[in-house]
Amino acid sequence: MHCPFCRHPDSRVVDSRTSDDGASIRRRRQCPSCNRRFTTVETASLSVVKRSGATEPFSREKIATGVRKACQGRPVSEDDLALLAQKVEETLRSAGSAEIDAYEIGLAILGPLRDLDEVAYLRFASVYQAFDSLDDFESAIAVLRAEREDAERTPSPEEPGRG
Ligand SMILES: [Zn+2]
Hints:
Layout: E1 12-18, E2 24-30, E3 37-43, E4 47-49, E5 55-57, H1 60-70, H2 78-94, E6 99-101, H3 102-116, H4 118-128, H5 134-153
Parallel strand pairs: 4-6
Antiparallel strand pairs: 1-2, 2-3, 4-5
Bound molecules: zinc ion.
């Protein structure tokens, strides 16, 4: 990487640190020619392929914005949304692909959103999966109920007071 000040074709890394979430590395570099310092940020590229075929960089903020609408009036905080967006990004990155369909993002949102708030999950799923009748809601709710009953049969040790 060349120096942005004098365009010397080489630079030396003087410091390198990973961001808290592990998604990027910041490198402090020094130019051996003019001795000025600059910073580069390295991230694995992750692009979203939209329905139109256009691509755009993955954005946690967009995930949070999309989910925030489904969470209106629900006890979901901005921290919850940020954590959900982080989980979604981790899921997508662990798939190892540099390009992901917008549809896959919706899928990756459904799991953590269901854990967060079932009402918000149903709202989001109804838009994302294009529910067009009460039957669609009923079957989604039936799945939630069945899974909740499974969970109650084997109570989690973190919730000893339950039941
Ligand atoms: Zn330089």
